[in-house]
Write a structure and sequence with these properties.
76% of the residues lie in helices and 0% in strands. With 334 residues, it is mainly alpha-helical. Helix 3 runs antiparallel to helix 4. The N terminus and C terminus are likely disordered.
Length: 334
């Protein structure tokens, strides 16, 4: 849930900011304007020359999140580390890029080195937490996030991530409390409202579920943010009550991200609920195409072809479903 980058990073969140050189400040200005490519160029030069500070490195990391050019970023950052091997900002940036490439062990090695140099850097504790979540070490992740919040209590994203973690742990009231803390800092935070929608849905509070999903979608539309997740989640919520109405939101999600495995999968489910099986089959196939490990998509497609009597393909798909489930168990083990 990853799109409204500008809205969650506030100047007040960074106690580490120093007086900015002009060129570094222009990088921050470009970032706030949404010109991520220009910001990345300026901030890269700023951080690699050691003229910048923690704020510049953090925003540089977020440009990579927006542009998703992690590979080139890592090559460039590693070259800078060869020149400045003890630079915490560069170590943090490389660790962050490894994390985004799902290379969590490499990320942790670099984080550990940075931590020895700067144990009270909140960014490191946040990234430790994200890696621990990838390793399914959720209690340890919670401790790291709480430490990051203690070091930087005015950062809304930290409370948002803590709320997401509590949701995963089925601690729904704790999740709501953390999300409300995020909103106290950043009132118009779309991802928070989307997550509150998920939480209230789990609590079977339909009125608040609808209210929060609608708020997330409204804020994204107001700011021109094309985030498919609130639309996917709201479409999924509507499916049991009105699969026809859910199509409206799932279609828009696919307009924003046609290669989203989740959006294609939920569209397939909605169409199947409407007995439009031929169309549904195509969307399940796309979900598998874009995520070959998507076990639920294999299962749904297997049930669909079984119902029409294609037992040969059913057998193949069930085998693929079981293989993807087994692979998922292995990859989730630290």
């Amino acid at each position: 849930m990853k799109s409204a980058v500008c809205t969650v990073i506030l100047a007040a969140s960074y106690s580490l900011r120093a007086e900015n050189p002009v060129s570094c400040q222009s990088g921050l200005d470009q970032f706030q304007s949404g010109n991520y490519a220009a910001a990345q160029k300026i901030l890269s030069e700023c951080v690699e020359s050691q003229r910048g500070n923690a704020t510049h490195a953090l925003h540089l990391a977020l440009t990579y999140r927006a542009l998703k050019n992690y590979d080139s970023g890592l090559v460039r950052t590693k070259a800078a580390i060869e020149r400045f091997p003890q630079d915490v900002d560069l170590l943090y940036l490389a660790a962050w890029l490894h994390y985004r490439r799902n290379e969590t062990k490499d990320s942790m090695l670099l984080l550990s080195k940075a931590y020895r140099l700067a144990p009270d850097d909140w960014r490191l504790h946040q990234l430790f937490a994200l890696n621990y979540i990838a390793f399914d070490m959720l209690d340890t992740a919670k401790l790291s996030l709480l430490r990051a919040i203690a070091l930087n209590p005015k950062n809304a994203e930290l409370y948002y991530q803590l709320g997401r973690l509590y949701y995963t742990l089925n601690l729904f009231q704790d999740s709501i409390d953390a999300m409300n803390s995020a909103l106290a800092i950043t009132p118009d935070y779309p991802e928070v409202y989307d997550s509150l929608g998920l939480t209230y849905e789990a609590l079977r509070d339909d009125e608040r579920t609808v209210e929060n999903y609608a708020k997330a979608i409204e804020l994204d539309k107001k700011r021109g943010i094309q985030d498919e997740w609130p639309l996917i989640n709201y479409g999924k919520f509507l499916m049991e009550k009105s699969p026809g109405e859910s199509l409206r939101y799932l279609r828009q999600a696919l307009q924003f991200n046609p290669t989203s495995p989740k959006a294609n999968y939920q569209m397939g489910r909605a169409l199947r609920a409407l007995r439009r099986d031929t169309e549904a089959e195509g969307f399940f196939e796309k979900a598998i195409q874009f995520d070959p490990s998507f076990s639920s998509a294999y299962y749904q497609l297997a049930m669909l072809v079984r119902d029409r009597g294609d037992y040969g393909r059913f057998t193949t798909l069930i085998a693929q479903f079981r293989a993807s489930m087994e692979k998922g168990k292995k990859t989730s083990t630290p």
